[in-house]
Protein backbone atom coordinates (compact mmCIF):
# COMPACT_ATOMS: atom_id res chain seq x y z
CA UNK A 1 0.00 0.00 0.00
CA UNK A 2 1.41 3.39 -0.91
CA UNK A 3 1.52 6.34 1.48
CA UNK A 4 -1.58 8.09 0.15
CA UNK A 5 -3.66 4.92 0.34
CA UNK A 6 -2.39 4.42 3.91
CA UNK A 7 -3.48 7.93 4.89
CA UNK A 8 -6.97 7.33 3.52
CA UNK A 9 -7.35 3.84 5.02
CA UNK A 10 -6.13 4.74 8.52
CA UNK A 11 -8.90 4.70 11.09
CA UNK A 12 -9.21 5.52 14.78
CA UNK A 13 -9.39 2.13 16.47
CA UNK A 14 -10.91 1.81 19.94
CA UNK A 15 -11.30 -1.98 20.13
CA UNK A 16 -8.27 -4.23 20.28
CA UNK A 17 -7.67 -7.96 20.06
CA UNK A 18 -6.21 -9.48 23.25
CA UNK A 19 -2.82 -10.25 21.70
CA UNK A 20 0.60 -8.71 22.13
CA UNK A 21 2.43 -6.68 19.56
CA UNK A 22 5.60 -8.45 18.34
CA UNK A 23 8.83 -6.71 19.35
CA UNK A 24 9.84 -6.24 15.70
CA UNK A 25 6.67 -4.24 15.04
CA UNK A 26 7.20 -2.07 18.12
CA UNK A 27 10.79 -1.46 17.05
CA UNK A 28 9.58 -0.19 13.65
CA UNK A 29 7.10 2.17 15.31
CA UNK A 30 9.76 3.49 17.68
CA UNK A 31 12.15 4.01 14.75
CA UNK A 32 9.44 5.96 12.92
CA UNK A 33 9.18 8.20 15.98
CA UNK A 34 12.95 8.66 16.05
CA UNK A 35 12.96 9.88 12.45
CA UNK A 36 10.16 12.41 12.92
CA UNK A 37 11.16 15.97 12.07
CA UNK A 38 11.53 18.43 14.93
CA UNK A 39 12.41 22.08 15.48
CA UNK A 40 16.17 22.46 15.17
CA UNK A 41 16.39 18.65 15.28
CA UNK A 42 16.17 18.96 19.08
CA UNK A 43 13.61 16.15 19.34
CA UNK A 44 12.19 17.95 22.37
CA UNK A 45 9.91 15.12 23.47
CA UNK A 46 9.95 11.96 25.53
CA UNK A 47 7.92 8.83 24.79
CA UNK A 48 6.79 6.41 27.49
CA UNK A 49 5.97 2.86 26.34
CA UNK A 50 3.31 1.57 28.73
CA UNK A 51 2.60 -2.17 28.81
CA UNK A 52 1.93 -2.62 32.52
CA UNK A 53 -1.78 -3.39 33.03
CA UNK A 54 -2.10 -1.24 36.16
CA UNK A 55 -0.49 1.77 34.47
CA UNK A 56 -2.74 1.29 31.42
CA UNK A 57 -5.71 1.33 33.80
CA UNK A 58 -4.40 4.54 35.39
CA UNK A 59 -4.02 6.10 31.94
CA UNK A 60 -7.60 5.17 31.06
CA UNK A 61 -8.77 6.82 34.29
CA UNK A 62 -6.58 9.87 33.60
CA UNK A 63 -8.18 10.06 30.16
CA UNK A 64 -11.65 10.61 31.59
CA UNK A 65 -12.53 6.93 31.68
CA UNK A 66 -11.66 6.04 28.09
CA UNK A 67 -11.50 2.33 28.87
CA UNK A 68 -10.20 1.24 25.47
CA UNK A 69 -6.78 2.53 26.56
CA UNK A 70 -6.46 -0.27 29.12
CA UNK A 71 -7.74 -2.82 26.61
CA UNK A 72 -4.81 -2.12 24.28
CA UNK A 73 -1.65 -4.17 24.83
CA UNK A 74 0.49 -1.01 24.64
CA UNK A 75 0.01 2.72 24.95
CA UNK A 76 2.58 5.31 23.98
CA UNK A 77 2.52 8.53 25.96
CA UNK A 78 4.08 11.49 24.17
CA UNK A 79 5.36 14.30 26.35
CA UNK A 80 6.78 17.61 25.21
CA UNK A 81 10.01 18.77 26.81
CA UNK A 82 9.57 22.56 26.89
CA UNK A 83 12.87 23.23 28.68
CA UNK A 84 14.84 21.44 25.97
CA UNK A 85 13.29 23.49 23.19
CA UNK A 86 13.24 26.66 25.26
CA UNK A 87 17.00 26.48 25.81
CA UNK A 88 17.48 27.24 22.11
CA UNK A 89 14.27 29.02 21.12
CA UNK A 90 13.12 30.79 24.27
CA UNK A 91 9.46 31.13 25.13
CA UNK A 92 8.24 30.20 21.63
CA UNK A 93 10.20 26.96 21.86
CA UNK A 94 8.69 26.25 25.28
CA UNK A 95 5.11 27.13 24.32
CA UNK A 96 4.98 25.84 20.76
CA UNK A 97 7.95 24.00 19.27
CA UNK A 98 8.17 21.30 21.95
CA UNK A 99 4.42 20.63 21.56
CA UNK A 100 4.81 20.47 17.79
CA UNK A 101 7.75 18.08 18.12
CA UNK A 102 5.76 15.68 20.32
CA UNK A 103 2.74 15.98 18.04
CA UNK A 104 4.72 15.18 14.90
CA UNK A 105 6.34 12.20 16.65
CA UNK A 106 2.90 10.90 17.63
CA UNK A 107 1.61 11.31 14.06
CA UNK A 108 4.57 9.28 12.79
CA UNK A 109 3.78 6.51 15.29
CA UNK A 110 0.09 6.61 14.35
CA UNK A 111 0.86 6.16 10.64
CA UNK A 112 3.59 3.56 11.27
CA UNK A 113 1.12 1.49 13.30
CA UNK A 114 -1.42 1.66 10.47
CA UNK A 115 1.23 0.65 7.93
CA UNK A 116 1.95 -2.45 10.04
CA UNK A 117 -1.73 -3.40 10.24
CA UNK A 118 -2.10 -2.22 13.83
CA UNK A 119 -4.82 0.00 15.17
CA UNK A 120 -4.43 3.14 17.23
CA UNK A 121 -6.34 6.21 18.24
CA UNK A 122 -5.07 9.63 19.21
CA UNK A 123 -6.17 10.52 22.75
CA UNK A 124 -5.81 14.13 23.80
CA UNK A 125 -8.48 14.38 26.49
CA UNK A 126 -6.85 13.70 29.85
CA UNK A 127 -5.76 15.25 33.13
CA UNK A 128 -2.05 16.08 32.89
CA UNK A 129 -1.32 15.44 36.57
CA UNK A 130 -2.94 11.99 36.47
CA UNK A 131 -0.95 11.06 33.34
CA UNK A 132 2.29 12.17 35.04
CA UNK A 133 1.47 9.97 38.01
CA UNK A 134 0.59 6.99 35.82
CA UNK A 135 3.88 7.12 33.91
CA UNK A 136 6.10 8.49 36.64
CA UNK A 137 7.20 11.35 34.39
CA UNK A 138 9.93 13.68 35.54
CA UNK A 139 8.98 17.24 36.44
CA UNK A 140 8.77 19.61 33.51
CA UNK A 141 7.40 17.29 30.84
CA UNK A 142 3.99 18.12 29.33
CA UNK A 143 1.78 15.21 28.26
CA UNK A 144 0.55 15.83 24.72
CA UNK A 145 -1.04 12.58 23.55
CA UNK A 146 -1.75 8.99 24.51
CA UNK A 147 -1.64 6.51 21.63
CA UNK A 148 -3.03 3.06 22.48
CA UNK A 149 -1.79 0.40 20.04
CA UNK A 150 -2.92 -3.09 19.18
CA UNK A 151 -4.36 -5.42 16.59
CA UNK A 152 -7.76 -4.02 15.62
CA UNK A 153 -10.92 -5.79 16.74
CA UNK A 154 -13.08 -3.46 14.65
CA UNK A 155 -13.14 -2.00 11.15
CA UNK A 156 -14.93 1.33 11.35
CA UNK A 157 -16.07 3.07 8.16
CA UNK A 158 -14.41 6.29 7.05
CA UNK A 159 -15.57 9.40 8.85
CA UNK A 160 -16.82 12.39 6.86
CA UNK A 161 -14.24 14.92 5.75
CA UNK A 162 -14.60 18.50 4.62
CA UNK A 163 -14.09 19.11 0.93
CA UNK A 164 -10.83 20.80 -0.04
CA UNK A 165 -12.45 24.15 -0.94
CA UNK A 166 -13.88 24.34 2.59
CA UNK A 167 -10.45 24.68 4.19
CA UNK A 168 -7.80 25.20 1.51
CA UNK A 169 -7.08 28.85 0.74
CA UNK A 170 -4.95 29.58 -2.30
CA UNK A 171 -3.18 32.92 -2.13
CA UNK A 172 -2.04 33.70 -5.65
Structure commentary:
- The chain has 172 residues and is α+β, with helices and mostly antiparallel strands.
- It is built from 7 helices and 4 strands.
- The chain has helices at residues 3-9, 23-34, 53-62, 68-71, 82-115, 128-135, 164-167; strands at residues 45-50, 74-80, 119-120, 142-150.
- The chain has a 4-stranded antiparallel sheet.
- The radius of gyration is 17 Å and the shape is globular.
Please describe the structure with a list of short key phrases separated by commas or semicolons.
172 residues, alpha+beta, 4-stranded antiparallel β-sheet, 7 helices, 4 strands, 46% helix, 14% strand
Summarize the structure.
The chain has helices spanning 3-9, 23-34, 53-62, 68-71, 82-115, 128-135, 164-167; strands spanning 45-50, 74-80, 119-120, 142-150.
Amino acid sequence: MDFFELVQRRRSIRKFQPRSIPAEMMDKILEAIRWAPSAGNLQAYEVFVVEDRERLHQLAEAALGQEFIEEAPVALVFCANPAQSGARYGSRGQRLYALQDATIACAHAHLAAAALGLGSVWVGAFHDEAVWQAIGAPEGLKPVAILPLGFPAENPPPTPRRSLPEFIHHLR
